[in-house]
Design brief:
This protein has one domain. It contains 8 helices and no strands. The two termini are about 25 Å apart.
Length: about 200
């Protein structure tokens, strides 16, 4: 569906440019956008490689295990329906740890694995379980200590102080995570009062 939406935007853009007689401007914008995309990607590669290396060092040093241990009580509170020894808990903690460190690319595979494990626990395979909805909400709004991707983009565009957004990003993600948890709790209560029945 998303592919069709983007195709519509591209075709509509060229159609409007043709009607206004500005096809060369649209063509130039396409090539400039492609060039800019490649430049940003190369900039992101360097910073992501650096932070993935830091994360590997943190993993070998046991820092990620410590962070996961601190997160365990929080995870068990947020996911009361998931057994404490279930593999989903480990994947959820890894996903949250990576998101907190601003490593969205590293968090995604763990999030997918967590969803797969939560689906195994799901009694109704056609509807997302409350635990799955909680994970999606947290993954989308996650608290971020170091926004590595944004820092990389700012570095790529020659920002004088690319890391100055750390404080505001932390505040914004704290607010978004708190809001996500409150809304999730509200919907859980509503689900408990009016459970969705299959069929």
């Amino acid at each position: 569906m998303v592919n069709w939406i983007w195709l519509f935007f591209i075709v509509a853009g060229f159609a409007v440019a043709a009607i206004q007689g500005n096809v060369e401007v649209a063509t130039q914008a396409v090539f400039e956008g492609a060039k800019s995309g490649v430049t940003v990607c190369f900039g992101l590669i360097s910073i992501l490689v650096f932070w993935l290396g830091i994360m590997r060092i943190a993993e070998d040093a046991g820092i990620l295990r410590k962070l996961s241990a601190w997160l365990r009580p929080v995870v068990q509170f947020l996911f009361p329906s998931v057994p404490s020894n279930h593999p989903a808990i480990g994947y959820i903690m890894s996903n949250m740890s990576a998101n907190i460190l601003g490593l969205g690319n590293a968090a995604t595979p763990m999030g997918i694995k967590a969803m797969q494990e939560l689906q195994r626990l799901n009694g109704n395979k056609e509807i997302a379980s409350p635990a799955m909805c909680t994970l999606l909400a947290l993954n989308t709004s996650s608290v971020t200590l170091i926004p590595t991707t944004l820092i990389a983009i700012r570095m790529n565009y020659n920002s004088l102080n690319p890391a100055e957004i750390v404080g505001t990003t932390l505040l914004a993600t704290l607010v978004s995570t708190a809001a996500a948890i409150m809304i999730d709790r509200w919907y859980r209560k509503r689900h408990e009062l009016n459970p969705i029945k299959k069929g």
